[in-house]
Specification:
The protein is of the alpha/beta class. The protein has two domains: 1-41 and 213-274, no CATH class; 45-197 and 316-492, Alkaline Phosphatase, subunit A (3-Layer(aba) Sandwich). Helix content is 27%, strand content 12%. It has 13 helices and 16 strands. The chain has helices at 82-86, 125-130, 144-152, 201-209, 218-229, 234-237, 239-246, 251-273, 317-333, 354-357, 363-366, 376-399, 465-474, and strands at residues 11-13, 19-21, 45-51, 72-73, 93-99, 160-163, 183-184, 193-194, 339-343, 402-403, 406-407, 412-418, 440-445, 455-458, 481-482, 485-486. The strands form five sheets. It has an eight-stranded mixed beta sheet, with helices on both faces. The radius of gyration is 23 Å and the shape is globular. The two termini are 42 Å apart. The model is unreliable at 211-216 and 276-294 (pLDDT under 50).
């Protein structure tokens, strides 16, 4: 056993060229508990998550039901963040409140550095994701995930870009960048290049865990194709090699391998249980004025106003979300990637909330009065809580996965951003608007670089991009800026 060593990027290869990456095992570690290699530290992982909603509803004087009253450790959980407590991960996640994106209204009509124009939708995305003021396209700077990927993403996949919301779900207009979370450098003098997200869990799974490159042996290619078409589990395809490897491992590594293979099999079951994309969920609305496209899009009434049908605008996102969380978790665990972005819902999201929260409108309209009654902010918080349920699930999986001498979460820096806050809307003049970038907040998780989890940090007047700078610093990217925004949030880091 003493002479047996595994590289941290070892794959189990099996029938038809199938390959399964291995998790971090003790046998891959050096004497300091790091992944095998002289003096190599455990790899750092960086993830940006996004939810397409603000924190409060139109006309409601309750700013939000998200930000805790208590500052520091042991913060209280309001309704929007209640799922963090239910999953037992609140002490792994910090809340950062008091954030804001400046507007042209407060800068004499000129868009300030790191700011946006007065119109809300789309214009908040560029400063939020890249720290660069709004302008010619949805995002005008390189996003933090791609900056990090350029420095620490040297692995099988430099970065992964996933989206849970399967479609725009509106038969008029188009997302125009609301569906994008990641942009890479376009080169000198060029705009940043958007990276389209993978929205098919099946395609994402295949790219991570099944090798589609055609083998040189035609007979092997046929055998591989037959096995896949028969939906044979990739775990079964590598069974012989796995059994041989397990016979050579110690007790702790045997348990980790078995758990790893069990999780992959469970992931396969989740994917096979997904309903057909869009077509199976598409139901013809009653006189919408425009037939919904395949995918369940909502229509219009012929006069430009959106109609709403509780059977449209939904493609099983409650099933898709945990699959993408599983995939991101597994990609980190296998060191297939160290950088990711995960968009749960698009900006100005038209995803149907009825199947998720029994709210009879899409996510965007939750804050605009799509749910009858005066408590619009509480309705917004109910919608946010759906996102938090899945975010908590991901954090729990990362926390409960051994990695080196700790857990996978110990080497992560994860930020969950929201599209807006709640407060003054310079475009309409409304004081309590969901179209506002005042009173913003975000979540930060992980212990990479000595981050301190499980606290409420008030960062009054700071830019939400500062939370991204903090996370970038935590994974080793030495910068004090993101686009036009400078400074991290000291309260999140060990001094």
């Amino acid at each position: 056993m003493a002479s047996f060593k595994l590289d941290r990027r070892t794959f189990l290869k099996g029938l038809g060229g199938a390959a399964v990456a291995l998790p971090a095992l003790e046998i891959m570690l050096d004497s300091h508990g790091s992944l095998a290699g002289p003096g190599l530290p455990a790899p750092q992982r960086y993830l940006v998550c996004f939810g397409g909603q603000s924190l409060g509803g139109d006309g409601d004087t309750l700013a939000n039901d998200y930000v805790p009253n208590q500052i520091g450790k042991g913060y209280d959980l309001k309704s929007a963040l209640a799922p963090l407590g239910a999953a037992g991960v609140a002490d792994e996640i910090s809340v950062v409140s008091g954030l804001r994106i400046p507007t042209s209204y407060e800068n004499g009509g000129m868009i300030p550095a790191g700011g946006r124009s007065d119109d809300f939708h789309i214009t908040s995305l560029s400063p939020l994701l890249s720290g660069v003021r709004s302008g010619t396209q949805a995002v005008n700077g390189v996003t933090s995930d791609q900056i990090v990927a350029a420095q620490i993403g040297a692995t099988t996949f430099p970065s992964l870009v996933y989206r849970v919301q399967a479609g725009w779900y509106l038969s008029v207009a188009a997302p125009y960048g609301r569906d994008l979370l990641s942009y890479k450098d376009g080169g000198p003098g060029n705009s940043p290049i958007p990276i389209p997200a993978t929205v098919s869990p099946k395609a994402a799974f295949d790219s991570l865990f099944y090798n589609f490159s055609p083998p040189t042996d035609p007979g092997l290619a046929k055998q591989k194709d037959f096995a896949w078409r028969e939906r044979k589990s990739v775990v079964d395809l590598v069974k012989t090699r796995a059994e041989h490897l397990v016979s050579r491992l110690g007790g702790a590594d045997k348990l980790r391998i078995q758990r790893h293979l069990d999780e992959i099999r469970d992931l396969e079951k989740r994917i096979s249980a997904l309903p057909p994309v869009a077509k199976g969920a598409c139901v013809q609305p009653g006189d919408p004025g425009m037939d919904p496209t395949v995918g369940g899009d909502q229509g219009t009434d012929g006069n430009g106003a959106n109609t709403y049908d509780t059977n449209l605008g939904y493609s099983g996102e409650d099933l898709r979300a945990p699959v993408f969380c599983d995939l991101m978790h597994m990609a980190f665990a296998c060191d297939l990637t160290r950088v990711g972005s995960l968009m749960f819902t698009m900006a100005q999201s038209h995803m149907n909330m009825f199947a998720l929260t029994q709210q009879p409108c899409d996510l965007h309209e939750v804050g605009h009065g799509g749910v009858p009654g005066p408590n619009k902010t509480l309705e917004v918080s109910k919608a946010i809580a759906w996102h938090m349920k899945h975010f908590a699930y991901l954090i729990k999986k990362l926390r409960d996965t051994p990695d080196g001498t700790g857990s996978l979460l110990d080497s992560c820096a994860i930020v969950f951003l929201h599209e807006g806050g709640h407060g003054f809307d310079p475009s309409s003049g409304e004081m309590y608007s969901t179209h506002s970038t005042e009173n913003m907040a975000c979540l930060v998780a992980g212990r990479a670089g000595g981050m301190k989890p499980g606290q409420h940090v008030v960062a009054t007047g700071m830019h939400p991009a500062s939370a991204l700078i903090t996370a970038m610093n935590a994974v080793g990217v030495k910068t004090n800026t993101l686009g036009e925004v400078s400074g991290n949030i000291p309260g999140l880091l060990v001094a």
